[in-house]
Amino acid sequence: MATVTAVREALVRRLDRIPGLVVRPTFGLQPAPPVAMLVLGVPGGSASTPGVDYGSTFRGGNPMIFTLRVLVSAAHEESAVHQLDAYIDPVGERSVVAALEADSEPLVDEGGVMIADFVQVPALLFAGPMEWSGAPYFGGEWLVEVRAT
């Protein structure tokens, strides 16, 4: 069974493919944009969106749900929106979806061992002005589903 840490690290490696984006495996207190941060579960989540669904037996693995937050500088609104749009686009070198779903390839650990059947990004939960640690940013939050083996 894949560990949460192994899955998180593998997701970070996929996101590292996006040029210029600093990727952190967890939410940081003082991020320097542009930055991507992962958290297990959905902030303010519920039993319908658990971080790890231990009761699921579908395909023999445990589904894991992460929230990915990408923050860009809010110093210039037009530039921020343009930069955020590139991360939101479903294709392109800065696309979060394209980097994470990686042509439907299984997720592998550092040694190349498969740790998840698939990664999918079913939804962008929010995009626009947001605050983090008291500072203004423009950002987006994506739901990331992983079927760990």
Describe this structure in words.
- With 149 residues, the protein is an alpha+beta fold.
- The chain has one domain (4-148): STM4215-like, CATH 3.30.2000.
- 20% of the residues lie in helices and 38% in strands.
- The chain has 3 helices and 6 strands, in the order H-E-E-E-H-H-E-E-E.
- It has helices at residues 4-15, 77-88, 96-101; strands spanning 22-24, 35-40, 62-73, 107-108, 114-132, 135-148.
- A 6-stranded mixed beta sheet has the order 1-2-3-6-5-4.
- A hairpin with a 5-residue loop joins strand 4 (107-108) and strand 5 (114-132).
Strand order of the largest sheet: 1-2-3-6-5-4
Q: N-to-C SSE series? A: HEEEHHEEE
- Computed structural class: alpha+beta
What is CATH's topology name?
STM4215-like
Number of strands: 6
Total separate domains: 1
- Name of the CATH first level: Alpha Beta
The dominant shape is globular
Which parts are unreliable, with pLDDT below 50 for 5 consecutive residues or more? none
Mean pLDDT: 86
CATH architecture verdict: 2-Layer Sandwich
Annotate the secondary structure layout.
Blueprint: H1 4-15, E1 22-24, E2 35-40, E3 62-73, H2 77-88, H3 96-101, E4 107-108, E5 114-132, E6 135-148
List keywords for this structure.
149 residues, alpha+beta, STM4215-like, six-stranded mixed β-sheet, 6 strands, globular
Quick structural gist:
By secondary structure, this protein is an alpha+beta fold. The chain has a single domain, classed as STM4215-like (2-Layer Sandwich). The chain is built from three helices and six strands.
